[in-house]
């Protein structure tokens, strides 16, 4: 693996990454926070969009592996003066950094950067395209909830996951739609018709079953419900359905929560409480919201380690190697 640009990867590669994250999770648990693995390496977090979880956890992950981590954001950098992504990337690479973590509002920006700079690039979320480390941490948290300390080596075979909400605008949904089935999960996409991706000839969306009725899917008693943030900032005044209609049809209300049994309640954050889910759902025993955040550090340690711990510091541009 030279870069991490997509969650599309073979099952064995995904399980190897999740197992490595399990090792990192043990280190977190034991408070042995610093490993020397990336001593002398420098990682730049290049964030052109706001973030709390992803940026902080990449910074923590890098520091716990003893890397030097520099944060560069769109605001406050020369990108705000009109510098192009290519020039920003080449400038950072010219300083001798070892890897770049990038979040951008432009779908495909991390892949372009990977071609241009000849350093390992990690996609921390690009537009409505992908958010691969989010999918990996979601898989980690779900696998850990199901298998506990015996998770190592296992996939998510037969685990029924419903991803609910604004699928069409969601990079989290797109990456999970690639990764979870590769691990054996049975994924159903749920949302208002306007929020579902365009169907393929066989009626599937992103290659998956899609439903518009959350109540019908809850009646099937899924093992996990993954609620997506309604991205009000991407709706540009054309919220369809309305907020009220969304709550009526697709919010995990207290009433729906009571019908859900002990299914895991997942959300990538940040949450719109009262919109995607009630506070009782967000904070209850079945919620994995904070476990997902914790998993984010372990998974990002595993990804940084996998890409940067080797002695070969001369990575070449490799556009085809996006796994
Ligand atoms: N889940 C997620 O990407 O959150 P942030 O935007 O806070 O990084």
TrEMBL record:
Residues annotated as signal peptide: none
Protein name: Aspartate carbamoyltransferase
PANTHER family cross-referenced by the UniProt entry: ASPARTATE CARBAMOYLTRANSFERASE, ORNITHINE CARBAMOYLTRANSFERASE, MITOCHONDRIAL
Pfam families reported for this sequence: OTCace (PF00185), OTCace_N (PF02729)
Assembly with partners or alone: Heterododecamer (2C3:3R2) of six catalytic PyrB chains organized as two trimers (C3), and six regulatory PyrI chains organized as three dimers (R2).
Residues annotated for L-aspartate binding in this entry: 81, 171, 229
Family membership: Belongs to the aspartate/ornithine carbamoyltransferase superfamily. ATCase family.
Species this chain originates from: Agrococcus citreus
Enzyme Commission number(s): 2.1.3.2
Catalytic activity reported: carbamoyl phosphate + L-aspartate = N-carbamoyl-L-aspartate + phosphate + H(+)
Gene3D superfamilies, A to Z: Aspartate/ornithine carbamoyltransferase (3.40.50.1370)
Domain Aspartate/ornithine carbamoyltransferase carbamoyl-P binding positions: 3-143
Sequence ranges assigned to domain Aspartate/ornithine carbamoyltransferase Asp/Orn-binding in this UniProt record: 157-306
Alphabetical list of SUPFAM superfamilies matching this protein: Aspartate/ornithine carbamoyltransferase (SSF53671)
Classification lineage: Bacteria, Bacillati, Actinomycetota, Actinomycetes, Micrococcales
Function text: Catalyzes the condensation of carbamoyl phosphate and aspartate to form carbamoyl aspartate and inorganic phosphate, the committed step in the de novo pyrimidine nucleotide biosynthesis pathway.
Alphabetized InterPro entries for the sequence: Asp/Orn_carbamoyltranf_P-bd, Asp/Orn_carbamoylTrfase, Asp/Orn_carbamoylTrfase_sf, Asp_carbamoyltransf, Asp_carbamoyltransf_Asp/Orn-bd
Keywords, sorted A to Z: Pyrimidine biosynthesis, Transferase
Residues that coordinate or bind carbamoyl phosphate: 53-54, 103, 131, 134, 269-270
Record pathway: Pyrimidine metabolism; UMP biosynthesis via de novo pathway; (S)-dihydroorotate from bicarbonate: step 2/3
């Amino acid at each position: 693996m030279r870069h991490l640009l997509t969650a599309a990867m073979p099952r064995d590669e995904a399980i190897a990454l999740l197992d490595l994250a399990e090792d990192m999770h043990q280190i977190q648990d034991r408070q042995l926070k610093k490993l020397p693995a990336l001593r002398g390496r420098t990682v730049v977090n290049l964030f052109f969009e706001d973030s709390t979880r992803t940026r902080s956890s990449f910074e923590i992950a890098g520091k716990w592996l003893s890397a030097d981590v520099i944060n560069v954001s769109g605001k406050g950098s020369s990108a705000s003066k009109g510098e192009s992504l290519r020039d920003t990337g080449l400038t950072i690479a010219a300083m001798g950094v070892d890897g770049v973590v990038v979040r951008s509002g432009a779908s495909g920006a991390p892949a372009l950067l990977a071609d241009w700079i000849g350093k390992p690039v990690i996609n921390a979320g690009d537009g409505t395209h992908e958010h691969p480390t989010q999918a990996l941490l979601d898989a980690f948290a779900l696998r850990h909830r199901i298998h506990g300390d015996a998770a190592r080596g296992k996939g998510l075979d037969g685990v029924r996951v419903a991803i609910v909400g604004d699928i069409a605008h969601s990079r989290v949904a797109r990456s999970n739609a690639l990764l979870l089935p590769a691990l054996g999960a049975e994924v159903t996409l749920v949302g208002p018709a306007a929020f579902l991706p365009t169907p393929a000839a066989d009626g599937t969306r992103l290659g998956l079953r899609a439903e518009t009725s959350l109540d019908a899917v809850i009646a099937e008693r899924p093992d996990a419900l993954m609620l997506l943030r309604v991205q009000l900032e991407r709706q540009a005044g054309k919220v369809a359905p309305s907020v009220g209609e969304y709550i009526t049809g697709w919010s995990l209300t207290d009433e729906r929560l009571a019908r859900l049994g002990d299914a895991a309640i997942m959300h990538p954050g940040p949450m719109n409480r009262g919109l995607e889910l009630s506070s009782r759902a967000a904070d209850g025993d079945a919620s994995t919201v904070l476990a997902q955040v914790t998993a984010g550090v372990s998974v990002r340690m595993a990804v940084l380690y996998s890409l940067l711990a080797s002695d070969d510091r001369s990575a070449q541009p490799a556009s085809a190697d996006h796994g």
